[in-house]
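Possible regression after last week's pipeline update?

I re-ran a chain I had predicted before the update to compare outputs. Posting the input and the new output here so someone can diff against the archived version. Not blocking, just want to make sure nothing changed silently.
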Amino acid sequence: MEIPRHHWFRRARFGLFIHWGMYALWERGEQVLFREHLSPSAYRRHADEFVPEHYDPRAWARLAKKAGMRYAVLTAKHHDGYCLFDSAQSELTSAKCAAQRDLVAEYVEAFRAEGLRVGLYFSLADWQWPAYWQGPEHDPAAFAEFIAHVHAQVRELCTQYGMLDVIWFDGAWPYTPEQWQAQQLCDMIRELQPGILINNRTGLPGDFGTPEQTILHTPDQRMWEACIASVERHWGYHSG
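New output (post-update):
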């Protein structure tokens, strides 16, 4: 039987997916670090150039509401490791680098003020960590430290911003749910945020599926959300 936390999602129908982060500096999409084989350390050095002076989440929220959207999801951390939130687990954050702002906190406040539901995207992958690339077989202790780091950042998101409606994971490849300790992660989230919806990209089924760039028929009536980019390939800003 469907539990109450699902009801709003079935009615919402239309939401805003905001892919935005430090990678916007390159104007070539959200995966520029990987696709162009940039050095993670060289990439980090550009963090002090990311100063979003015109960031106005209240304007975004008003526009989303006017368009008929009922909820939004913001990339709190994408695969590049840069956090739009204040994380004690990392120095690569908007609060500690040049922006000197907790951009997630401003987003959450703005969208709640317009009566919209609030979600956060979080990439399990983190290209700043050598242990992510090397995997658990190469150095089990380093990989265990990386997993603990991931879980600690999710705990921060679940405790620093009040009630959240959605947590949207991504980047589980190439590891298994067991290697991510996904069940323990989801159990922690449920304890901290009992009403939250969790997507299916930890490798576990979660509360809803996430077909990408397509709409799938689901005869079992399982909830789904078709995530469709506004351009063919890129989710983040691309000047071309």
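Follow-up from reviewer: compared with the archived run. Residues 4-198 form a domain with the TIM Barrel fold (CATH 3.20.20.80). Marking as no regression found.
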